[in-house]
Amino acid sequence: MSYPVNYKNITADIDFYQELDVMHREAENYLRGFKWCKEIKNSFLYTNLGGVLCIFLFEIINTQSSEDNFLWVMVGDFPPMYLDVYGPKKTKHVVEDYINLAQDWIDQVKKGIPVIDCYPFNAEPTLELAERLEKRVLFMKNELLDNMDDISFRN
Fold it and tell me: pTM of the full predicted structure?
């Protein structure tokens, strides 16, 4: 199978299907939690590591920006994140941005500084959560980046 794959074309024979289905629903629910996401029109799978990490590209109806209708969403065993396609153009860039934004959040929490100016992760800024997130960020940085397919944005 070559990526990206329109999620409508995903079948049960894909790797990690059950976990992938859970991750897709989590990504959809995450986006629907923002009032500017009026509707999800389409979604594409770009990276599939089951419950560990999935990267999707969503086409949405955005009530706050008619030109901002494509969003990357990264979900897994860490707080989810969305990024617009004007920044990261490839899947490795999505992960690199996640690493950098998460590291900023982690550093602020460890220093006891409010995370007001950080990416708004849907997570309590506690030392325990920062340490758990830091383990995932280290995995992404040290293991994942050099071993993942780098797939470009296509709409």
Answer: 0.92
